[in-house]
Amino acid sequence: MKFSLGCLFLFFQLGATCFRSSPGGGSAGQFPDFIVVVLTLFTDTSVKKPSSPGPATNPPDPPTNPPDPPTTSAPVCERPPGQPGIFVADSVSGAKIDFQSTPTKSCPCAGGTKHYFEEVIAKRAHKPLTGFELKCGTEACVCVSENECYRPSVDTIELRVHPFCEEDVDGSCAMYMVFIAEDDADTMNPSEGSTGAAITYGSQKQPRSGTVDLFTSGRFKKAISAGCGECVKVAPC
User: Fold this and answer.
1) What does UniProt give as the signal peptide span (predicted)?
2) How do the domains of the chain map onto residue ranges?
């Protein structure tokens, strides 16, 4: 609360008159009570304003978790109906492989390719010749399971993989490991750390005729992977 200078002068004039002669027998030189009150009011003529609050601040945003990375499903190589397939490692390339028939489908995989071949009904071992031949000598390796793989004992062995199916038996198609040797005693030997036993060339022949038996006769192993210099496991693709 504030007073003008005119009001202030008026109060002091009244106070001076009263100071000179005080009515009611009061002693001169003393301010009446109402003058003291007025002077007290003039000593504090303003009312303090409440302190204004500081600038408004927004609360910090709550921490946010980073978005989950997009999930991608692994590529799937669907098998053509009824057709057998085999995983061929990247180590088998160029002159190290001779395709005797064109794969019907090839799927890139980690470390190699999955090849599928047209199904063939096996009548005799020498016909038809499809699939491929590995041409890396004793470095070649064919696996028939995760723990059973074979290598040629000599460089002169022709190591082939042929697709055949049992006649009138659904789901019987497979890739068969077949080898041709100069001597009946030449073998396909288990690779280092592999299970299985040596397979002689003579064991693939019919006892009476001496000709190579049917691939589906049980004398031949079903191959799942092939490599040169390494015995590879089948990679998902």
Assistant:
1) 1-18
2) 85-228
